[in-house]
Protein backbone atom coordinates (compact mmCIF):
# COMPACT_ATOMS: atom_id res chain seq x y z
CA UNK A 1 0.00 0.00 0.00
CA UNK A 2 1.50 3.35 -1.04
CA UNK A 3 2.23 5.93 1.64
CA UNK A 4 -0.71 8.25 0.89
CA UNK A 5 -3.23 5.40 0.95
CA UNK A 6 -1.58 3.94 4.05
CA UNK A 7 -1.93 7.28 5.83
CA UNK A 8 -5.68 7.31 5.23
CA UNK A 9 -5.94 3.64 6.19
CA UNK A 10 -4.18 4.39 9.48
CA UNK A 11 -6.48 7.35 10.05
CA UNK A 12 -9.53 5.12 9.64
CA UNK A 13 -7.95 2.65 12.06
CA UNK A 14 -7.46 5.40 14.65
CA UNK A 15 -11.07 6.59 14.42
CA UNK A 16 -13.16 5.67 17.46
CA UNK A 17 -15.74 2.97 16.83
CA UNK A 18 -14.06 1.67 13.67
CA UNK A 19 -13.04 -1.89 14.47
CA UNK A 20 -11.60 -4.45 12.08
CA UNK A 21 -14.93 -5.52 10.61
CA UNK A 22 -16.14 -1.96 9.96
CA UNK A 23 -12.78 -1.01 8.46
CA UNK A 24 -12.94 -3.97 6.08
CA UNK A 25 -16.54 -3.02 5.23
CA UNK A 26 -15.45 0.55 4.42
CA UNK A 27 -12.67 -0.69 2.15
CA UNK A 28 -14.94 -3.18 0.40
CA UNK A 29 -17.52 -0.45 -0.23
CA UNK A 30 -15.28 2.45 -1.27
CA UNK A 31 -12.34 0.42 -2.68
CA UNK A 32 -9.95 3.05 -1.31
CA UNK A 33 -9.02 4.27 2.17
CA UNK A 34 -8.79 7.86 0.91
CA UNK A 35 -12.30 7.75 -0.60
CA UNK A 36 -13.68 6.12 2.54
CA UNK A 37 -12.03 8.70 4.76
CA UNK A 38 -13.35 11.66 2.77
CA UNK A 39 -16.82 10.26 2.03
CA UNK A 40 -19.89 12.34 3.01
CA UNK A 41 -22.06 11.06 5.83
CA UNK A 42 -24.87 9.82 3.59
CA UNK A 43 -22.42 7.55 1.73
CA UNK A 44 -20.86 6.28 4.96
CA UNK A 45 -24.30 5.39 6.30
CA UNK A 46 -24.81 3.20 3.22
CA UNK A 47 -21.98 0.92 4.33
CA UNK A 48 -23.12 -2.26 6.14
CA UNK A 49 -22.59 -1.90 9.88
CA UNK A 50 -22.67 1.90 9.93
CA UNK A 51 -25.45 3.80 11.61
CA UNK A 52 -25.76 7.51 12.20
CA UNK A 53 -23.67 7.49 15.38
CA UNK A 54 -20.74 5.61 13.88
CA UNK A 55 -20.83 7.73 10.72
CA UNK A 56 -20.83 10.91 12.80
CA UNK A 57 -17.82 9.65 14.80
CA UNK A 58 -15.92 9.00 11.58
CA UNK A 59 -16.68 12.48 10.23
CA UNK A 60 -15.96 14.33 13.48
CA UNK A 61 -12.67 12.51 14.21
CA UNK A 62 -11.18 13.01 10.76
CA UNK A 63 -8.68 15.78 11.44
CA UNK A 64 -7.38 14.29 14.67
CA UNK A 65 -7.11 10.80 13.19
CA UNK A 66 -5.27 12.01 10.09
CA UNK A 67 -2.78 13.96 12.21
CA UNK A 68 -2.13 10.88 14.36
CA UNK A 69 -1.69 8.68 11.28
CA UNK A 70 0.87 11.03 9.73
CA UNK A 71 2.73 11.23 13.05
CA UNK A 72 2.89 7.44 13.33
CA UNK A 73 4.39 7.09 9.85
CA UNK A 74 6.96 9.78 10.57
CA UNK A 75 8.18 8.07 13.74
CA UNK A 76 8.42 4.53 12.37
CA UNK A 77 11.68 3.04 13.70
CA UNK A 78 14.30 1.65 11.33
CA UNK A 79 13.44 -1.83 9.98
CA UNK A 80 9.78 -1.30 10.87
CA UNK A 81 6.92 -1.69 8.42
CA UNK A 82 3.12 -1.74 8.49
CA UNK A 83 1.29 -4.70 6.95
CA UNK A 84 -2.41 -4.11 6.36
CA UNK A 85 -5.24 -6.60 6.03
CA UNK A 86 -5.31 -5.91 2.29
CA UNK A 87 -1.59 -6.44 1.63
CA UNK A 88 -0.26 -9.65 0.10
CA UNK A 89 2.08 -9.93 3.07
CA UNK A 90 -0.78 -10.26 5.57
CA UNK A 91 -0.77 -13.77 7.15
CA UNK A 92 -3.53 -15.93 5.70
CA UNK A 93 -4.16 -17.94 8.87
CA UNK A 94 -4.65 -14.73 10.86
CA UNK A 95 -6.93 -13.32 8.17
CA UNK A 96 -9.13 -16.41 8.52
CA UNK A 97 -9.88 -15.68 12.20
CA UNK A 98 -13.08 -14.11 13.50
CA UNK A 99 -11.52 -10.73 14.34
CA UNK A 100 -8.25 -10.20 12.44
CA UNK A 101 -6.41 -6.96 13.20
CA UNK A 102 -6.73 -4.40 10.38
CA UNK A 103 -2.96 -3.87 10.40
CA UNK A 104 0.25 -5.04 12.03
CA UNK A 105 3.32 -3.02 12.92
CA UNK A 106 6.34 -5.25 12.27
CA UNK A 107 9.82 -4.51 13.59
CA UNK A 108 12.16 -6.92 11.82
CA UNK A 109 11.49 -9.34 8.99
CA UNK A 110 7.86 -8.93 7.93
CA UNK A 111 8.19 -11.85 5.49
CA UNK A 112 8.05 -14.20 8.48
CA UNK A 113 4.32 -13.48 8.71
CA UNK A 114 3.84 -15.61 5.61
CA UNK A 115 5.71 -18.67 6.87
CA UNK A 116 3.64 -21.78 6.21
CA UNK A 117 4.53 -23.58 9.44
CA UNK A 118 3.94 -21.72 12.68
CA UNK A 119 3.41 -23.09 16.17
CA UNK A 120 2.78 -21.02 19.29
CA UNK A 121 4.49 -22.02 22.55
CA UNK A 122 2.96 -20.18 25.50
CA UNK A 123 3.02 -20.40 29.25
CA UNK A 124 3.40 -18.79 32.61
CA UNK A 125 5.75 -16.00 33.63
CA UNK A 126 6.46 -17.95 36.84
CA UNK A 127 8.15 -21.08 35.60
CA UNK A 128 9.84 -24.19 36.89
CA UNK A 129 13.04 -25.76 35.58
CA UNK A 130 10.81 -28.42 34.04
CA UNK A 131 8.70 -25.84 32.20
CA UNK A 132 11.69 -23.94 30.84
CA UNK A 133 13.31 -27.18 29.71
CA UNK A 134 10.11 -28.29 27.96
CA UNK A 135 9.72 -24.94 26.18
CA UNK A 136 13.37 -25.02 25.10
CA UNK A 137 13.33 -28.60 23.84
CA UNK A 138 10.01 -28.28 22.01
CA UNK A 139 11.21 -25.09 20.28
CA UNK A 140 14.58 -26.59 19.31
CA UNK A 141 13.01 -29.73 17.87
CA UNK A 142 10.28 -27.87 16.01
CA UNK A 143 12.68 -25.49 14.28
CA UNK A 144 14.59 -28.51 12.92
CA UNK A 145 11.47 -29.13 10.86
CA UNK A 146 11.46 -25.47 9.78
CA UNK A 147 8.62 -24.46 12.08
CA UNK A 148 8.50 -20.79 13.08
CA UNK A 149 7.92 -20.30 16.80
CA UNK A 150 5.32 -17.70 17.85
CA UNK A 151 4.81 -16.40 21.37
CA UNK A 152 4.00 -13.33 23.45
CA UNK A 153 7.52 -12.26 24.51
CA UNK A 154 6.61 -12.32 28.21
CA UNK A 155 8.99 -13.47 30.91
CA UNK A 156 9.14 -17.19 31.55
CA UNK A 157 7.93 -19.72 29.01
CA UNK A 158 7.42 -17.22 26.17
CA UNK A 159 10.96 -15.87 26.33
CA UNK A 160 12.43 -19.36 26.82
CA UNK A 161 10.74 -20.52 23.60
CA UNK A 162 11.81 -17.44 21.61
CA UNK A 163 15.42 -17.68 22.78
CA UNK A 164 15.70 -21.41 22.19
CA UNK A 165 14.36 -21.10 18.64
CA UNK A 166 16.61 -18.16 17.80
CA UNK A 167 19.77 -19.55 19.37
CA UNK A 168 19.25 -22.83 17.51
CA UNK A 169 19.17 -20.96 14.20
CA UNK A 170 15.39 -20.92 13.77
CA UNK A 171 12.79 -18.21 13.17
CA UNK A 172 10.56 -16.64 15.78
CA UNK A 173 7.78 -14.03 15.98
CA UNK A 174 7.15 -12.08 19.19
CA UNK A 175 3.69 -10.52 19.55
CA UNK A 176 3.47 -7.60 21.96
CA UNK A 177 0.71 -6.08 24.07
CA UNK A 178 2.35 -2.69 23.52
CA UNK A 179 3.73 -0.72 20.59
CA UNK A 180 6.67 -2.36 18.82
CA UNK A 181 8.83 0.50 20.10
CA UNK A 182 7.85 -0.16 23.73
CA UNK A 183 9.48 -3.46 24.63
CA UNK A 184 7.95 -5.25 27.60
CA UNK A 185 9.45 -6.66 29.69
CA UNK A 186 12.38 -4.26 29.41
CA UNK A 187 14.75 -7.12 30.19
CA UNK A 188 14.06 -8.35 26.64
CA UNK A 189 15.08 -5.05 25.03
CA UNK A 190 18.51 -6.22 23.84
CA UNK A 191 17.06 -9.52 22.62
CA UNK A 192 14.33 -7.68 20.68
CA UNK A 193 16.95 -5.64 18.82
CA UNK A 194 18.89 -8.79 18.04
CA UNK A 195 15.76 -10.36 16.61
CA UNK A 196 14.87 -7.30 14.51
CA UNK A 197 18.41 -6.94 13.16
CA UNK A 198 18.40 -10.51 11.86
CA UNK A 199 16.32 -12.09 9.12
CA UNK A 200 15.03 -14.67 11.60
CA UNK A 201 12.98 -12.53 13.94
CA UNK A 202 10.05 -10.13 14.01
CA UNK A 203 8.42 -8.04 16.73
CA UNK A 204 4.71 -7.61 15.97
CA UNK A 205 1.85 -5.53 17.36
CA UNK A 206 -1.44 -4.11 16.16
CA UNK A 207 -1.11 -1.25 18.64
CA UNK A 208 0.15 2.23 17.68
CA UNK A 209 3.73 3.23 18.36
CA UNK A 210 4.19 4.46 21.89
CA UNK A 211 1.39 2.32 23.37
CA UNK A 212 2.20 1.20 26.91
CA UNK A 213 1.76 -2.45 28.01
CA UNK A 214 -1.58 -2.11 29.77
CA UNK A 215 -3.34 -5.22 31.10
CA UNK A 216 -6.32 -4.80 28.76
CA UNK A 217 -4.04 -5.17 25.72
CA UNK A 218 -2.87 -8.70 26.43
CA UNK A 219 -6.04 -10.70 25.62
CA UNK A 220 -6.08 -8.90 22.24
CA UNK A 221 -2.42 -9.79 21.77
CA UNK A 222 -3.23 -13.42 22.55
CA UNK A 223 -5.68 -13.67 19.65
CA UNK A 224 -2.85 -12.71 17.28
CA UNK A 225 -0.54 -15.33 18.80
CA UNK A 226 -3.14 -18.08 18.33
CA UNK A 227 -4.29 -16.67 14.98
CA UNK A 228 -0.83 -16.76 13.42
CA UNK A 229 -0.16 -20.33 14.52
CA UNK A 230 -1.45 -23.58 13.10
CA UNK A 231 -1.23 -25.02 16.62
CA UNK A 232 -0.70 -23.80 20.19
CA UNK A 233 1.32 -25.63 22.86
CA UNK A 234 0.63 -24.69 26.49
CA UNK A 235 3.62 -25.54 28.65
CA UNK A 236 2.85 -24.10 32.09
CA UNK A 237 -0.08 -21.96 33.20
CA UNK A 238 -2.56 -21.62 36.01
CA UNK A 239 -6.17 -22.34 35.10
CA UNK A 240 -6.94 -18.60 35.03
CA UNK A 241 -3.68 -17.68 33.28
CA UNK A 242 -3.33 -15.70 30.08
CA UNK A 243 -2.05 -18.76 28.22
CA UNK A 244 -5.39 -20.42 28.83
CA UNK A 245 -7.01 -17.51 27.01
CA UNK A 246 -4.68 -18.16 24.08
CA UNK A 247 -5.63 -21.84 24.12
CA UNK A 248 -9.34 -21.00 24.22
CA UNK A 249 -8.98 -18.59 21.31
CA UNK A 250 -7.15 -21.25 19.30
CA UNK A 251 -9.93 -23.75 19.99
CA UNK A 252 -12.54 -21.19 18.91
CA UNK A 253 -10.76 -20.99 15.55
CA UNK A 254 -10.59 -24.81 15.22
CA UNK A 255 -6.82 -24.79 15.62
CA UNK A 256 -4.92 -27.64 17.27
CA UNK A 257 -4.09 -27.23 20.96
CA UNK A 258 -1.51 -29.29 22.83
CA UNK A 259 -0.66 -29.25 26.53
CA UNK A 260 2.49 -30.42 28.27
CA UNK A 261 1.41 -32.33 31.39
CA UNK A 262 2.92 -31.19 34.68
CA UNK A 263 3.37 -31.83 38.35
CA UNK A 264 -0.04 -32.13 40.03
CA UNK A 265 1.36 -30.33 43.08
CA UNK A 266 2.34 -27.18 41.16
CA UNK A 267 -0.27 -24.51 40.44
CA UNK A 268 1.64 -23.65 37.24
CA UNK A 269 0.72 -27.09 35.91
CA UNK A 270 -2.99 -26.80 36.70
CA UNK A 271 -3.80 -25.15 33.35
CA UNK A 272 -2.28 -27.74 31.00
CA UNK A 273 -3.53 -30.59 33.19
CA UNK A 274 -7.03 -29.09 33.09
CA UNK A 275 -6.96 -28.83 29.28
CA UNK A 276 -5.94 -32.48 29.00
CA UNK A 277 -8.51 -33.67 31.57
CA UNK A 278 -11.32 -31.81 29.80
CA UNK A 279 -10.19 -33.13 26.38
CA UNK A 280 -9.65 -29.57 25.17
CA UNK A 281 -6.02 -30.28 24.30
CA UNK A 282 -3.97 -33.27 23.31
CA UNK A 283 -1.24 -34.36 25.66
CA UNK A 284 2.09 -33.21 24.20
CA UNK A 285 4.77 -35.74 25.10
CA UNK A 286 7.28 -34.58 22.49
CA UNK A 287 7.76 -32.24 19.55
CA UNK A 288 7.88 -35.32 17.30
CA UNK A 289 4.35 -36.20 18.37
CA UNK A 290 3.14 -32.65 17.66
CA UNK A 291 4.74 -32.74 14.23
CA UNK A 292 3.11 -36.10 13.47
CA UNK A 293 -0.31 -34.87 14.56
CA UNK A 294 0.08 -31.81 12.33
CA UNK A 295 1.17 -33.90 9.35
CA UNK A 296 4.62 -32.32 9.26
CA UNK A 297 6.78 -35.17 10.54
CA UNK A 298 9.83 -36.03 8.45
CA UNK A 299 9.15 -33.41 5.78
CA UNK A 300 11.97 -31.08 6.91
CA UNK A 301 9.99 -28.18 5.50
CA UNK A 302 11.03 -29.14 1.98
CA UNK A 303 7.66 -30.22 0.64
CA UNK A 304 5.45 -27.18 0.33
CA UNK A 305 2.80 -29.30 -1.39
CA UNK A 306 1.99 -33.01 -1.02
CA UNK A 307 2.97 -35.11 -4.01
CA UNK A 308 0.26 -35.12 -6.72
CA UNK A 309 -2.56 -37.61 -6.13
CA UNK A 310 -3.35 -40.16 -8.82
CA UNK A 311 -6.91 -39.30 -9.85
CA UNK A 312 -7.55 -42.59 -11.64
CA UNK A 313 -10.77 -44.13 -10.39
CA UNK A 314 -11.86 -41.05 -8.46
CA UNK A 315 -15.21 -39.37 -8.89
CA UNK A 316 -15.50 -35.81 -10.18
CA UNK A 317 -16.32 -34.59 -6.66
CA UNK A 318 -13.40 -36.45 -5.08
CA UNK A 319 -11.02 -34.97 -7.66
CA UNK A 320 -12.40 -31.49 -6.98
CA UNK A 321 -11.73 -31.89 -3.24
CA UNK A 322 -8.16 -32.99 -3.94
CA UNK A 323 -7.64 -29.99 -6.23
CA UNK A 324 -8.70 -27.66 -3.41
CA UNK A 325 -6.47 -29.35 -0.81
CA UNK A 326 -3.47 -29.32 -3.14
CA UNK A 327 -3.98 -25.63 -3.82
CA UNK A 328 -4.24 -24.92 -0.07
CA UNK A 329 -0.95 -26.66 0.65
CA UNK A 330 -2.10 -27.65 4.16
CA UNK A 331 -5.11 -28.51 6.32
CA UNK A 332 -8.48 -26.90 5.61
CA UNK A 333 -11.47 -26.69 7.92
CA UNK A 334 -14.47 -28.49 6.44
CA UNK A 335 -16.56 -25.32 5.95
CA UNK A 336 -13.76 -23.60 4.01
CA UNK A 337 -13.16 -26.77 2.02
CA UNK A 338 -16.85 -27.05 1.11
CA UNK A 339 -17.01 -23.41 0.04
CA UNK A 340 -13.93 -23.67 -2.18
CA UNK A 341 -15.10 -26.94 -3.70
CA UNK A 342 -18.61 -25.60 -4.32
CA UNK A 343 -20.28 -28.39 -2.33
CA UNK A 344 -22.64 -28.54 0.64
CA UNK A 345 -21.00 -29.44 3.94
CA UNK A 346 -23.05 -32.64 4.32
CA UNK A 347 -22.18 -33.73 0.78
CA UNK A 348 -18.49 -33.03 1.20
CA UNK A 349 -18.35 -35.00 4.46
CA UNK A 350 -19.55 -38.08 2.58
CA UNK A 351 -16.86 -37.57 -0.09
CA UNK A 352 -14.18 -36.99 2.55
CA UNK A 353 -15.10 -40.21 4.34
CA UNK A 354 -14.61 -42.10 1.10
CA UNK A 355 -11.23 -40.40 0.56
CA UNK A 356 -10.23 -41.33 4.12
CA UNK A 357 -11.04 -45.00 3.40
CA UNK A 358 -8.82 -44.72 0.31
CA UNK A 359 -5.99 -43.28 2.50
CA UNK A 360 -5.89 -40.09 0.41
CA UNK A 361 -6.95 -37.57 3.08
CA UNK A 362 -6.70 -37.49 6.86
CA UNK A 363 -8.96 -35.75 9.37
CA UNK A 364 -7.30 -33.57 12.01
CA UNK A 365 -8.63 -31.76 15.08
CA UNK A 366 -11.40 -29.21 14.55
CA UNK A 367 -12.79 -30.97 11.45
CA UNK A 368 -9.76 -30.04 9.40
CA UNK A 369 -8.65 -32.22 6.49
CA UNK A 370 -5.27 -32.65 4.82
CA UNK A 371 -3.81 -34.77 2.03
CA UNK A 372 -1.80 -37.74 3.21
CA UNK A 373 0.77 -37.54 0.40
Describe this structure in words.
The chain is 45% helix and 13% strand. By secondary structure, it is α/β, with parallel strands linked by helices. The protein folds into 3 domains: 1-74, Orthogonal Bundle (DNA polymerase, domain 1); 110-293, Rossmann fold, CATH 3.40.50.450; 316-371, Arc Repressor Mutant, subunit A (Orthogonal Bundle). A 9-stranded mixed β-sheet has the order 1-2-6-5-4-3-7-8-9, sandwiched between helices. A 3-stranded antiparallel β-sheet has the order 10-12-11. The longest helix is centred in the middle third of the chain and has 16 residues, at 129-144. The protein is globular, with a radius of gyration of 22 Å. The two termini are 38 Å apart.
CATH class of the largest domain: Alpha Beta
Strand percentage lies at 5-15%
- Looking at the overall shape, the CATH architecture of the largest domain is 3-Layer(aba) Sandwich
For the residues shown, what is the average pLDDT? 91
- Termini, distance in Å? 38 Å
The quaternary state of the protein chains shown equals single chain
Strand order of the largest sheet: 1-2-6-5-4-3-7-8-9
User: How many distinct domains?
Assistant: 3
Helix content: 40-55%
Shape: globular
Order of helices and strands: HHHHHHEHEEHEHEHEHEHEHEHHEHHEE
Amino acid sequence: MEKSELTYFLALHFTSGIGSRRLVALMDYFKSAERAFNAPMRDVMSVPGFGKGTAEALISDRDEALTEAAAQLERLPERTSIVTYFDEGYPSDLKATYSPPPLLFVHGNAALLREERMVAIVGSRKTSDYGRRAAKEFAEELIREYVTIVSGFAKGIDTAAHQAAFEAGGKTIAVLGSGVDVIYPYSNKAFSEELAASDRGAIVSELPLGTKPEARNFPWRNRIVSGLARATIVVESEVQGGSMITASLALDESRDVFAVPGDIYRSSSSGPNHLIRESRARLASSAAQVLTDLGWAGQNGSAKQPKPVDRAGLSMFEARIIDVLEAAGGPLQVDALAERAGLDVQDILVQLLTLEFKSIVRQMAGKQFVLMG
